Amino acid sequence: MVKRRGTVRLSTVDYDNQFFKDYVIDQTRDDHNGLDTESARRIVRAYDFFKQQLASKPEEYLTKMLSIIGESTCTTHLVHDESEAIQMFIFQNNRGKKPSNLEIVKARFMNCDL
């Protein structure tokens, strides 16, 4: 899903991308030494978690999960500042419902310099 016909279809931020490619996509690196960023450590934890969780699953389950993921869609919205990003977060994460007043207040607080 991530690499198709030699083309990598998912990347991370520039400073973690080579590590992501080596550890997750090509699996040429398996050590946890020298992880300079918190995001690299999160990549390791997430990959190791899913590898462990999926190792014992039957093929039918894995095939169904692959089908579900393959049929999913992902949207991308380029934003110009943090305020716009927070607005998009509110709009995209409302599960089809109007956000509650609490959700709006929390999102606004995320945008404040406290």
Number of distinct beta strands: 2
In whole angstroms, how far apart are the ends?
A: 41 Å
Identify the strand order in the major beta sheet. 1-2
Structural class based on helices, strands and sheet pairing: mainly alpha
Average predicted local confidence, pLDDT: 82
Roughly how much helix do the residues carry, as a percent range?
A: 55-70%
What does the overall shape look like?
extended
Q: What composes the largest sheet?
A: 2 strands, antiparallel
Describe this structure in words.
The protein has 114 residues and is mostly helical. Helices cover 55% and strands 4% of the residues. The protein contains 5 helices and 2 strands; from the N terminus they run E-E-H-H-H-H-H. It has helices spanning 14-25, 38-55, 59-70, 82-92, 101-110, and strands at 3-4, 7-8. The protein has a two-stranded antiparallel ribbon with strand order 1-2. A hairpin with a 2-residue loop joins strand 1 (3-4) and strand 2. Helix 4 (82-92) packs antiparallel against helix 5. The mean pLDDT is 82.
